[in-house]
Every structure is written in C-alpha cells, then in structure tokens.
C-alpha cells in the first residue's frame, strides 16, 4: 500500500470513530455506532500493518492474539456490577500502551541504555524538540494514567482503602514532584540531543509515582470524577503520541477520548457542586465527618419500620419513585428492585426511577445495572426530569443512596455537601429508606431526611429487605 | 515553531471541538457505554504499538512493542465487545411507550 492510500485509510477510520460516538446519542443507534467503530479500527490496523516500516510480524501476531483472548475473556465474564473496575482497569492498559510506545520511540531515537554522547548524537534519525516534548508528555501522562488507574481499581475492589489517605504536606509534595518533572521535561526539550537519558527514565518513574500519590487522597465516592479524569488523561496521552509519531489519526482519536473524559468529569463535578481542584486536592468530609456526630448525637429518634409497615405503605401507593445509590450495587439488589417494581406495576402502581448523575462509582453506573435487570430505559429519569414529580408522589423508595437525597444540601450552609443538587424526596407523602445502618454517608454529613416524620427507616441488607417487600406486596394483593 | 507542530495543533483543536459537540449529545443514560466506547477508540495507540513491535529495531523495542500491542488490543477488543454487550441490555418498555407523556 502506498503512503497516500494509508493516509486515506486513516482518514476513513477517523470519520468512522466520530460516527461511532455519534451513535451513542441514543440506545437504538448505539449498536450500529459500535459496529462503525469496530470497522474503523479494523481499517486502521490493516493500513498500519501494510506500512513499510513493519518488517516482522511474529511479535505483532503474538500481541494481537494474546490481547484479543484476554479482552474477550474479560468482556464476556465480567458482571455489570464490576463495570467501574473494568473501566479503571482498561484505562490502566491504555496508559501502559501509550507509555511503552513512547519509551520505544525514545529508545529508537536516543538509545535508552547507551551513554548519551557521540553515538546517540550522531544517530541515524536524531530527535528534535517537537518529538522530545511530545514523547515526554506521552510517557509522563501514560505512566501517570497507568498507576493512577491501578490505584482507582484497587480502591474500587477494596484492596486499597476507599477512604482518603492524607498526610501533612501531601499536596505540597505532589505539586513539587509535578513541577520537578516539568522542569526535567523542559530541559530535555531545550537539549533534545544531549540531555542525559536518565532524565527520561526519572520522568517515567515520576509519572508512575505521581499516579499513585494523586489518587491516594481521593475517596471512594469521588471515583466518578477520578475515572472520568483518567479517561481524559489516557486520551491526551494518545494525542501526544500522535504529535510524536506525526500521526493524525492518533491526534484525532486522542482528542475525542480526551474531550469525552473532560466533559464527563465536568458534569460529575457539577453534580456534586465541587470544583475540579476540590476533588483532586481536597480530601472530602474529613472535617465535617468528625463534627457532625457530636452535634447530632446518637440519641436522635427516627422511625424504624418493619418490612410489613413498608410493604403496607407501598401497597397503598399509586405512584412510587425508586432512588438507587451505590448501596444497590454493593448488595446486588438491582434484580430484586426490578421484581418489586413488577409486583407494584401489576397492582396498577406507577413506578419510576430517579438516577442522580453521581450515583454509584462511575458515570451511568445505575443505568447499566437497571438495564441489566430488564428495567426499560424510558422509566429511568435524570435529576432535572424528575425533581418536580416527588411532590406528587405517594412513596419514594431509597435503595442504598444517602448524600443525593440529603435535604441539608439545599438548606444547611454548614453541610459539607451544601449546594450539591439533590432529589426533593422529602416532598413525597412517605419516604422509605433502605439502609445498612445509621452511619453517615460518604461526605460524613448527617442526613436530616432520616429524622423526618414521613420517613421510615428499614435497616438491613437492601436485597433481603426488597425480596421480603416483594412477597409483602404480592401477598397483600391477593387478600 | 515547526510546521508539524502547527499542523498537529490545528487537527487537535478541531477534533476536540467535534468531540465536545458529539459527546455533549450523549444522554446520561449512556455514559457508561460512552466511557467504554471512547476507551476502545483510544486503543488506537495500537497503531503506534504495531510499528514499535514490527520495526525490528532491537529486542528491547520488540518486547516493549509486544506488551504495548497486547495492552492496546485488550482495550480495543474488550472495549467494543463490552460496549455492545451493555447497549444490548437497554430496552424500551413495551407497555410504557403509550402511557408516557414525554
């Protein structure tokens, strides 16, 4: 294949990728979009393999086969509740791939292990400032995304504590390391041919270390923002690869990925009424969490209800709104929720679902879980679409959600989540809250909702409670 | 500043703009498939990895390239497959359709 033909193939792939993302604007067109994306990727791979630089195929075929096997196995096996982990994991691989491409390119141009003198200066191709700068960004962002995503994965899986890990001077240390790395990069850009190769290696190492350090202080419930940000970094790293290799398709695809990640993290931050800086640098709730219990006290009374009481309320309701949260994912209650909704709908009750943008551990987490348990997507409602309906609703069922239904976010200026958009659940005639215990939510803020007279608290495992509610609703209907 | 850099920045700026426009039309309902879909697309670093693995520069490059090809392929194959698997689950309610106002 000639060079022009290869470039045209890349252009076709780029257009197909944009059409793929366009398809995701509705569930009906989504699958066609995925097909277009796959087609684009296929064309890009064929065009690349036809390049004249590629002279041996054994490593390529081995990598493609191994990658396809692992990728297929993960995609077929993984349960939907583990999607945030899968996404974090794949960002790690994306970061790793771009970082390694950068290291290989640098090695080719400068020779990683040769002492940087005569030999490399007179190397065949040499390295110019643009390549050096792009490679530096690529490797730094790639390695940062790699370890950062592994940390996010660990926090989601629970083998690294989900709580923010902080220490004195942490931000100063991270910022220092960041600017130190930038300084190294600047030096290498100014002297691309002669800068010692250890600088490049230190830059890789510092990217790896900063990925760990940057995610450590961020708590579990902020994961939607972190995952979106890492998505954006993975995209930017791919972009930098494009600049280094002078490949337009890499720049375009990287920019698509980067802007998607950036847009999502902006939406997530907005849905928590927090700035980027606050999520990234401010370990959340550490101050409020210790203060709230002492003022609130353990003695406050709330209506602890039995499953029978809650079942009776649901039976008497004409309209029910379900508000799911991360607790639903933890107790795998999505199928039970669906059964309960089916039992209620059979009695003529209208059931809707209210999905908060930051419910769960990644953007769209709750939607995927409910879709998996066959809840039709047109009964899932966003914050703006449903918030006025609560006042006209008989019963609200809160399943493992806390901060997103805290009325204090609207009124209590001292609350750590003040200003965050929340559901007006307290306006419904009655509210049933399914919760493991009376502990505060992630933010550490006391939730006034739990102490309101029209709120019933049903403590225990959400899945068990809902299954019991299903038989209550069904049984009561028969008699 | 070199011609290459300027040209690259043009492409970057325009692609970012297109990406922003296209992605702001994706409803929150599909944000998870969006993430796994863009993830698959960013597996395009496969293009760079293939060259690294196949250029036969030396053994170090080949091995690093091989690992990069593997990692990128996991994202491409896995990303598209899981996006499709998720999109298959989204169904419209058969009864809800006529009863809904919106």
What's the story with the biggest beta sheet of chain A?
6 strands, parallel
Q: Proportion of β residues of chain B?
A: under 5%
Question: What is the subunit organization of this protein?
Answer: heterodimer
How would you write the strand order of the largest sheet of chain A? 3-2-1-4-5-6
Q: Let me know the average pLDDT of chain A.
A: 85
**What is the typical, i.e. mean, pLDDT of chain B?**
87
Quantity of strands of chain A, as a count: 6
Q: What's the total count of β strands of chain B?
A: 0
Please tell me how large the radius of gyration of chain A is. 26 Å
Output the radius of gyration of chain B. 20 Å
Termini Cα gap of chain A = 76 Å
Strand percentage of chain A, roughly? 5-15%
What is the H/E string of chain B? HHHHH
Protein chains sharing the most extensive interface: A-B, 115 and 86 residues
Helix content of chain A: 55-70%
N-to-C SSE string of chain A, H for helix and E for strand: HHHHHHHHHHHHHEHHEHEHEHEEH
Task: Give the helices and strands, then pairings.
The complex is a heterodimer of chains A (479) and B (102).
Chain A: H1 3-23, H2 27-49, H3 58-77, H4 83-110, H5 118-121, H6 129-157, H7 170-190, H8 197-215, H9 223-245, H10 248-271, H11 276-281, H12 286-296, H13 307-315, E1 319-324, H14 326-330, H15 334-346, E2 350-355, H16 365-372, E3 380-382, H17 383-386, E4 395-399, H18 408-411, E5 430-435, E6 455-459, H19 462-478
Parallel strand pairs in A: 1-2, 1-4, 2-3, 4-5, 5-6
Helix pairs in contact in A: 1-2, 1-10, 4-6, 4-9, 6-7, 6-8, 6-9, 7-8, 9-10, 13-19, 15-19
Chain B: H1 3-23, H2 31-42, H3 46-54, H4 59-89, H5 96-99
Helix pairs in contact in B: 2-4, 3-4
What can you see in these coordinates?
The complex is a heterodimer of chains A (479) and B (102). With 479 residues, chain A is of the alpha/beta class. Chain A folds into three domains: 1-76; 78-281, no CATH class; 300-478, Rossmann fold (3-Layer(aba) Sandwich), CATH 3.40.50.1220. Chain A has 19 helices and six strands. A six-stranded parallel beta sheet of chain A has the order 3-2-1-4-5-6. Chain A is elongated and about 75 Å long. With 102 residues, chain B is mostly helical. Chain B has a domain at 31-89. Chain B has five helices and no strands. Chain B has helices at 3-23, 31-42, 46-54, 59-89, 96-99. Chain B starts with a helix and ends with a helix. The model of chain B is unreliable at 96-102 (pLDDT under 50). Chains A and B meet through α1, α2, α3, α4 and α9 of A and α1, α2, α3 and α4 of B.
């Amino acid at each position: 294949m000639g060079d022009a033909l290869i470039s045209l193939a890349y252009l076709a792939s780029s257009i197909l990728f944009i059409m793929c993302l366009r398809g995701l604007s509705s569930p009906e067109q989504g699958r066609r979009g995925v097909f277009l994306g796959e087609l684009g990727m296929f064309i890009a791979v064929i065009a690349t393999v036809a390049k004249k630089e590629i002279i041996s195929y054994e490593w390529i075929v081995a990598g493609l086969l191994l990658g396809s096997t692992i990728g297929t196995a993960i995609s077929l096996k993984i349960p939907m509740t583990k999607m945030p982990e899968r996404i974090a994991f794949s960002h790690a691989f994306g970061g790793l791939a771009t970082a390694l491409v950068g290291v290989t390119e640098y090695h080719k141009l400068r020779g990683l292990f040769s002492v940087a003198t005569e030999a490399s200066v007179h190397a065949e191709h040499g390295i110019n400032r643009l390549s050096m700068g792009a490679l530096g960004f690529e490797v730094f962002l790639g390695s940062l995304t790699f370890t950062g995503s592994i940390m996010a994965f660990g926090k989601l899986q629970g083998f690294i504590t989900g709580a923010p890990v902080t220490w004195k001077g942490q931000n100063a240390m991270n910022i220092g390391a960041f600017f130190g790395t930038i300084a190294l990069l600047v030096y290498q850009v100014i002297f691309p041919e002669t800068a010692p190769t250890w600088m490049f290696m230190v830059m890789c190492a510092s990217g790896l270390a900063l990925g760990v350090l940057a995610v450590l202080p961020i708590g579990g419930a902020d994961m939607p923002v972190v995952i979106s940000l890492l998505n954006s970094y993975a995209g930017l790293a791919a972009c930098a690869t494009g600049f280094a290799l002078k490949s337009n398709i890499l720049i375009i695809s990287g920019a698509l990925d980067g802007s998607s990640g950036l847009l999502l993290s902006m939406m997530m931050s907005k849905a928590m009424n927090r700035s980027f800086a606050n999520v990234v640098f401010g370990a959340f709730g550490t101050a409020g969490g210790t203060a709230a219990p002492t003022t609130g006290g353990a003695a406050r009374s709330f209506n602890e209800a039995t499953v029978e009481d809650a079942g009776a309320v649901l039976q008497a309701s004409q309209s029910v709104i379900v508000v799911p949260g991360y607790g639903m994912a933890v107790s795998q209650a999505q199928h039970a929720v669906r059964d309960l909704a089916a039992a209620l709908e059979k009695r003529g009750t209208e059931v809707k679902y209210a999905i908060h943008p930051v419910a769960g551990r990644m953007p769209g987490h709750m939607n995927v879980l409910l879709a998996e348990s066959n809840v039709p997507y047109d009964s899932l409602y966003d914050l703006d679409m449903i918030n006025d309906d609560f006042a006209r609703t008989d019963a609200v069922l809160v399943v493992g959600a806390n901060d997103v239904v805290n009325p204090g976010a609207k009124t209590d200026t001292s609350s750590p989540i003040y200003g965050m958009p929340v559901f007006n659940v307290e306006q419904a005639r009655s509210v049933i809250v399914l919760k493991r215990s009376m502990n505060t939510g992630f933010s550490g803020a006391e939730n006034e909702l739990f102490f309101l007279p029209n709120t019933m608290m049903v403590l225990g495992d959400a899945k068990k409670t809902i299954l019991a509610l299903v038989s209550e609703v069904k049984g009561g209907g028969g008699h | 500043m070199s011609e290459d850099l300027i040209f690259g920045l043009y492409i970057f700026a325009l692609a970012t703009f297109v990406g922003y426009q296209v992605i702001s039309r994706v409803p929150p309902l599909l944000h998870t498939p969006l993430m796994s879909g863009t993830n698959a697309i960013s597996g395009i670093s496969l293009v760079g990895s293939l060259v690294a693995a196949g250029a036969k520069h030396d053994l170090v490059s080949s091995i690093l390239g091989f690992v990069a090809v593997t990692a990128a392929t996991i994202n491409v194959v896995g990303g598209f497959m899981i996006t499709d698997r998720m999109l298959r689950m989204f169904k419209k309610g058969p009864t809800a359709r006529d009863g809904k106002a919106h």
